[in-house]
Amino acid sequence: MTLRQRMAEFGFESNDDYDFPIRALFESRAANLRCLDVAGESGRRKTAFAHALARALDYPHVVYHDFSANEPPPAPIVLSTESKDNPEPIEAPLTGFERAVTEACAFSEAARTVLIVDQLQSADFRDQTRLYHFVRTGEWDLAQVHVRANAKHLLVVLVSEAPLYHSLAKVSYRIWTDASSGRFDFRPSDFGLGQDAAELFTKLSELFTALGTTPTPSELRRILDDLMRFVRTEEHLRHTLFGWMERIDRAALHSTVLGPAVRAVVDTLNAYVGLEELEMAGGELSAALPSNADGQGGAPPE
Q: Is 254 helix (H, G, I), strand (E, B) or coil?
């Protein structure tokens, strides 16, 4: 099973194959910790990529910190009478970020570990510089504690909605995540259809090229199911594409520029399923049931 297929099992589906960039990251001879900068469109898709990658690569430990999440206030410190008479320096409680890095270092001593640092654009600049120092050296310093990560076991994954701090970007390997990228290179046989559906796939490819987006395998499977069963008009097709595809420009889909490409798909589809058009008394065309009557066609319910 490919890395793309494994990641799809853990909730991240894409047309891109990430085998090469991940191999390049792991075979890099850089002296710093392995650090992956997950780039892409805004939203939680990059977070889904980070978690799916960790699971697909069978990492036993995944430590996660989100800088945009509100942290609970620290517990109050109660001083006894003796401590008031003999005051001792009180260390500030660890932040969620400090706990996450410390925990990842501890896990990495004996096992493969992923540290996911999410929404880094919300981090204080001091935390970003500390993170840079940690990635570059593998060392993590707190007030009274010094820990070190096992570079062979630890992978740091950074997710940000803004460009990384320059120095941090220089020690990171950047990867792009996008569900709608890639070419439409699907074949009818991939979905249990015969070669007689080749023309339909050609017209779908032309439409998706004009849209500048490509469905993922599971999205296309749902779209084809609708096409075979009840999509019979241009409006039906637009609803189906917008309904099932995560990344699609609705304005472009309904534009007059794409009208011919949408119409070509519908005409080819109707010819494929054997649909006959009957002229009504009012001059409008009404779509009849597919003539093949094999259970794949049929009008949508009233």
A: coil
